[in-house]
């Protein structure tokens, strides 16, 4: 299965690329702006990844990258928040978390990529919750733009019945070992919690593998306090498709 990972140089994307590359089931491609940085981040895994130069803020680079892929996993997030007028804005949430995601989803849908996995964020529909207020104030309304990015994925993929999307909204992200605690999947964006980035990668992989019983679905994930089940199908079994 050929999968394009976008955002593989850090965070959840790095964990996704490493996890997929460790399996013979996947042929992993990484869309990167800086080849040296990506190679360094992936370390020994870089030998198992094929790099494609591209940038989500440059739509013309995305169509060739998506061609022939069986899945796309998008984990991108803006590095900057607010900027002064007149500054370069391409690395702010509007241009990355919204327009970048939009460009990528449209390119993937046009290339008929069967599965599109977006890692978004818990709390995107609750702009007035304390945590959301802080994040939006400090990081340039990032959750507002992430929600618009989700909508763009739905719009692009809803035009093709044979294609499907999976929108994953993790809780607070932690750099901890995965597989230590149960993964809880919920819908409705009502919960709070944290989750290991490695566990987010496991769920993204599960969506690619067909362990989620349906597509065109949006859900939140956090870690519980009990030990994880052996079958990920249990985690995703009760999800309902988006209306």
UniProtKB/TrEMBL annotation:
InterPro entries: NAD(P)-bd_dom, NAD(P)-bd_dom_sf
Ranges where the NAD(P)-binding domain occurs: 7-208
Name of the featured protein: NAD(P)-binding domain-containing protein
Source organism (scientific name): Selaginella moellendorffii
